[in-house]
Amino acid sequence: QRAVHPDRFGQRPLKEQSYSEQHSSLINKAYQTLLNPLSRGLYLLELNGVEPAQETDSDADSAFLMEIMEINEKLAEPKNEDSLEEIETLIKVKQDELTEEVTAAFERDDLQEAKKLLAKMKYFANLEDKLKKKKIPS
Predict the structure, then answer these.
(1) Short-list 62, 63, 65, 60, CA closest to 118
(2) For the chain, what is the largest distance between any 2 Cα atoms, rounded to a whole number of angstroms?
(3) CA distance 5 to 23
(4) SS3 call for 83
(5) Which helix (H) or strand (E) is 70 found in, with range?
(6) pLDDT band (50, 70, 90) for residue 60
(7) What is the CATH number of the domain that holds 113?
(8) Residue 37 near residue 95 (C-beta atoms within 8 A)
(9) Residue 134 above 90 pLDDT?
(10) Confidence class of residue 5 from pLDDT cuts 50, 70 and 90?
(11) How many folded domains does the chain comprise?
(12) In sequence order, which residues have a C-beta less than 8 Å from that of residue 39 and are 6 or more positions away?
């Protein structure tokens, strides 16, 4: 990023400035993709030619779906700081566990397992987004 940063090309020809801006943007996008375990995992699936699980895929087990429903119900309850902190901790723990599991699946080249785990990670990412919205003061 340092080598192609636009600030280093301010006095250069327009073609080099354009090159710098384009590549700087690509580097930033790549960094953001690799920074997040979910987007990184989805990208690794894509690199290996595996389509990510769709919302309509029903591979998720019933116990997992029940857990997601319960967390959603807790999020729907009136705002309670203690409850929100408890949910936030639960989501973080689950995301950390899933990140470890998906890492192990990729390490043993089990792309179908990684696909299933990433689908579960999407559910928790959605819950995290709902939680963030709930925590924003009205």
Answers:
(1) 60
(2) 60
(3) 8
(4) helix
(5) helix 62-76
(6) low
(7) 1.20.1280.20
(8) yes
(9) no
(10) confident
(11) 1
(12) 32, 33
